[in-house]
Write a sequence for this structure.
């Protein structure tokens, strides 16, 4: 199974059930947003992006046997923000998710994205 491709298609199409199936039970999640994160918060933020964005596209990717680095363009109604994602994969499950957002543009074009 193409874990990375399935992950990208799942979260960008707002399929949280598929996203949950790909995450390992002990997945480590980190990001640079000013909010605590765990797998449930990650899924909620991905849902908000998928629901609000006009499009989410992979602008670049580097694939390896044990994971990938992905660069996303998150196109909102008034502008585009970027997010870089680092994924680690073991036995077909995602064990680590590290996301780095362009926080200035996220706050501008996706207001309230990570507020609870």
């Amino acid at each position: 199974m193409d874990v990375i491709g399935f992950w990208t298609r799942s979260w960008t199409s707002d399929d949280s059930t598929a996203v949950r199936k790909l995450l390992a039970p002990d997945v480590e999640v980190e990001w640079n947003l000013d909010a605590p994160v765990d797998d449930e918060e990650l899924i909620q933020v991905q849902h908000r992006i998928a629901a609000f964005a006009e499009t989410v596209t992979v602008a670049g990717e580097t694939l390896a046997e044990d994971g990938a680095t992905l660069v996303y363009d998150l196109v909102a109604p008034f502008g585009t923000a970027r997010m870089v994602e680092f994924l680690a994969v073991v036995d077909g499950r995602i064990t680590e998710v590290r996301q780095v957002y362009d926080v200035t543009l996220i706050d501008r074009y996706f207001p309230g994205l990570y507020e609870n």
Q: What stands out?
A: Residues 79 and 109 are 6 Å apart (CA to CA).
